[in-house]
Specification:
Elements lengths: L1 H17 L3 E5 L4 E9 L3 E6 L8 E4 L3 E5 L23 E8 H4 L3 E11 L2 E10 L8 E16 L17 E19 L4 E22 L3 E17 L7 E2 L3 E4 L2 E16 L6
Antiparallel strand pairs: 1-2, 1-5, 2-3, 3-4, 6-7, 6-15, 7-8, 8-9, 9-10, 10-11, 11-12, 12-15, 13-14, 14-15
Amino acid sequence: MKTKICTLLVCCIAYINSFSQDIIIKKDGKKMEVIIKKVTKNNIKYIFFNDPNKVTHTIDKVLVANVAFAYGNKGLDVKDPEKNPYYFADDKTQNIMINFSAFSGNTLAFAYEKAINPGQSLMTELKLYGLGSKPEFEKGRSGFGLDLHYRLKTKSFFSKKEYRPKHILHGPYFAPVIGFSTGTIAYNYTYNNTNQAVKHSIFHFGIQYGNQWILQRKISIDTSFGFHYFVGSQSNSGAYEPIRLGNMVGNRDQLFSFNIRVGFLTGKNMMKKPH
């Protein structure tokens, strides 16, 4: 008798559960009474609770605000995986680079980049004029520059062909840039055996677009170009000598920048300590 009662109770519970409904709450506020069949990284598969034909539907997670399960779970985390720092738990967040384009312009430039969020990083670059490869037309150079970049990634970290996302500092980006520069360039004109000193003290601002590759999660290769405007003073510039800032060159109030940076990753990884 007891066995029959237990069997009946189990059947009743199973029957009730087969008709239990889940609730999908969309971002527009609409609630859908459904039976969820499968949850993947990008979407949710479900059938409508009162659908006698049991047709399977699919909704992208990006359209979902929350999910209330029939069995009492508090809900489903449907946050954008691009913004989840735990996908990047093993990634070093700091990058130290040397700018080889600046070096060819008689400038030693060190850059330091730090990831602040998935898809965002801050970078500062210090330029020391006169400590690079000196062009033939230069007699000497002195001064320094300091630039600040705010980098925003323009492409997804995730790929269907790979097990895990790209490194947190990997990928194409655009970066608003502001900077300051002051210095002197002494030119040596061999055709008429004369010298000329060009001095400047300027502030500049602009946009750079580039791509950064992270190799073996240890080495970085970064290339970029950009357009900038500047304000400030430039003395004895003449009509033919542009302003030169190592990785930047221009005249009047405009600058063009080109960069090739190589660096290595260091610092702590992206994993946050549990509260």
